[in-house]
Structures are given as C-alpha cells and as structure tokens.
Design brief:
alpha/beta, five-stranded mixed sheet, 5 strands, elongated
Length: 358
C-alpha cells in the first residue's frame, strides 16, 4: 500500500492553522484544508482522512502535497488554472498584427476595426482586443519634422546649455510672436455644461479682427512679458525689444532665444543689437520651434483662454490676453527643461537614419 508523505507541525504552525479554523471570516474551503493538514499531522493516510471528512481521497492528497510545498500560504488560495482554450489562434493574432502594420485596406489609408474584422473573419471586438494588447492604434497618426539645419547640433547645445546652466548675472529670455490670434464671436449662444451634457458651442463664427502677441518668457522664474501688436514686422519686433530693454535691470546681460524668422534678422534689428551690447541672440535651428520654451506658454494660452473664448471685438481679445498674462505672473512657475542635448541629438540621428532608410 502506498504511504502518503508525513507532515510534521511545529507549535507555531499548528497554532496558525487552528486560529484560521476558529476565525469567523475564514472561508469554509480554507477551514476544510486546515483540517486535512491537521489530521495528516496525526498520522492519518489520505483514505482515512477522506472517510472521516467525507471528501474524495484525491482532495486529501492534493492539500497534503500543497502544504508540503508552500506551507500555510498554499492553503489560502487555489492554484492558477490554465483557463479555457482561446477561440482565436496565435496564427490569427499574428495575421491581424502583420496586416495592420504592413498593409492597407483596398481604397483606404488605414484599417478600422470593422474593415479588419471582415478581412480576417473575426469580430470587431476581437480585433480591438488584439490591437490593444499589441499597442496598435491605426486611427491615429503622429506628425513630425526633422530639422535639416547644417548647424543643428551647435545651436541645440547652445540653447539647451542656456536652459540647464544659465550664465550668472544674466537673464535668459525665450521670445517669439504668436501671430493671427483671431477674435472670434459665435453666431449663436452656446449652452452651459450641466450633468449629462457637455458645454456646447456653435462651429459658425464671426471674425472680428486679429492680433499678434509678442511674448518673452523668463526661463528662470516663469514670468512673461507680453505686447499685442497689429502686425508682426521688424518694426513691431524692435518695439518689443525696446520694451524689454526698459523693463530688465540695466546691469544684467540679456540672452534671447528666438527662431530665425527673417523679421528677427532684419538689418535694422541687427543695428539695434549692435548698439545694445548686453543683448545676445541665440537662434533655434530651422524647423525646431519645439526648442523654444515660449511655445509651451503659447499652448497653455490657446487651451485655457483663446480656443473656447467668445470675443465681440478685437479689444476684448487683447484685454483677455493681457489678463491671462497678469494672472500667470501673480504666481509664475518656470517650465523645467530636463532633456540633455546629447539625448535629443541621438534621437534626431536615429530619426534621420530611419527616414533615409525608408
């Protein structure tokens, strides 16, 4: 006759098992397992335990073996099961992933759940689960622009150096203009947000003029200087530079980060800079406006104040922009730049290699 492996309990383990059996919140199945182990510790065989507890002998053998392997913890939870056999084979999953990433539907630019489901013969929801498991989103596309500036690396290191290690006794300002800000008035009044309904806004609008915001962000403090102008020529750019010259402490040098827009390099601007030696201009690379920190402020301004605003005239728009800047400057917070120039350059190098390879 086969003899079941013996179980020996020390005082601490026996007390823990008895405590589990007495506790009111212990599930009945766990109490049953504890009793099996305690009877096995008395020297009873699996058949004897099964007869005494009126369970199948294989159950007594199972929990005796589980306790010997895992201890008390092995009695508290069932072992994981394999689950039901998947209805969609691994080959079908691989086919969906391959078709999604390497082909296009007939007369279409990208797959949808329904078109893919019809093509491979499974349900729409199954296609959705496969895409979700593999991180595929065919309905979305990300835009990109790789700078072809021959001095990209040099300009990148210069500007990132100003962000991460600004010079002493100097002010680093990120400058740019946000042109063509439209004063849009809606043709019909919208409805306010309420429970179960979003705020509404008609897509029809009346344009009441445009303005250009010239703005400078103090990269150290987050404070913003702003000036709205009708146009964005070199005349207006010079006017903004004069405003900064009057505002900033005369004892400080001023490092300006801006893009290489022709207005910023106009001969009159160059002459003005040559007469004001404390100003030092650092141009961002071509097609790299993301390197200019003021763009982050412009994004927040658009999202928080302009996009959903209603302006009956141009003056209302200019006042709204001014109020937003004033409110921002009451408690300014700098945008923290964390990316190193070497990391950005490595990423751009990889992107160029992939683009040329394709």
């Amino acid at each position: 006759m086969r003899v079941a492996p013996a179980i020996e309990l020390n005082a601490a383990v026996r007390a823990e098992l008895e405590k589990l059996m007495r506790r009111r919140t212990t599930p009945q199945r766990v109490v049953e397992r504890c009793r099996i182990v305690l009877l096995a510790a008395q020297g009873l065989q699996n058949k004897e335990i099964a007869e005494r507890m009126q369970v199948a002998p294989r159950m007594a053998a199972l929990w005796r073996r589980r306790f010997l392997q895992l201890g008390v913890e092995g009695l508290l939870k069932d072992a994981p099961r394999s689950g039901r056999k998947p209805s969609i084979t691994a080959e079908k999953v691989a086919e969906v992933v391959t078709m999604t990433t390497q082909s296009k539907p007939e007369a279409g630019t990208h797959w949808s759940r329904s078109t893919m489901a019809r093509e491979v013969g499974i349900s729409d929801s199954s296609v959705g689960r496969i895409w979700s498991a593999h991180g595929l989103k065919p309905h979305r596309v990300e835009s990109f622009k790789i700078s072809n500036d021959p001095k990209f690396a040099e300009k990148l290191e210069d500007i990132v150096g100003l962000y991460l290690n600004p010079p002493e006794h100097a002010l680093v300002l990120s400058l740019d203009e946000k042109s063509q800000i439209q004063a849009l008035d809606r043709t019909q009044p919208g409805l306010p947000m309420k429970k179960g309904r979003d705020q509404t806004m008609t897509h029809n609008y009346k344009r009441n003029g445009t303005t250009t915001l010239f703005a400078a962000l103090n990269t150290a403090t987050g404070e913003v200087y702003g000036l709205c102008q009708q146009r964005h020529r070199h005349h207006e750019w010079l006017k903004f530079l004069r405003l900064i010259d009057e505002t900033v402490d005369a004892q400080k040098r001023v490092h300006i980060i801006c893009d290489n827009y022709s207005t910023h390099k106009h001969p009159r601007v160059q002459r003005w800079l040559s007469r004001h030696k404390r100003f030092h201009v650092h141009f961002t690379p071509t097609s790299a406006s993301w390197l200019n920190m003021i763009e982050r402020f412009f994004r927040d301004l658009t999202e928080n104040r302009i996009r959903r605003g209603v302006f009956h005239d141009l003056e209302q728009l200019i006042m709204a922009v001014g109020d937003y800047i004033d409110h921002h400057n009451k408690n300014p917070k700098p945008f923290i730049w964390t990316a190193k120039a070497s990391d950005i350059l490595e990423k751009v190098t990889r992107a160029r290699a992939a683009l040329h390879k394709g």
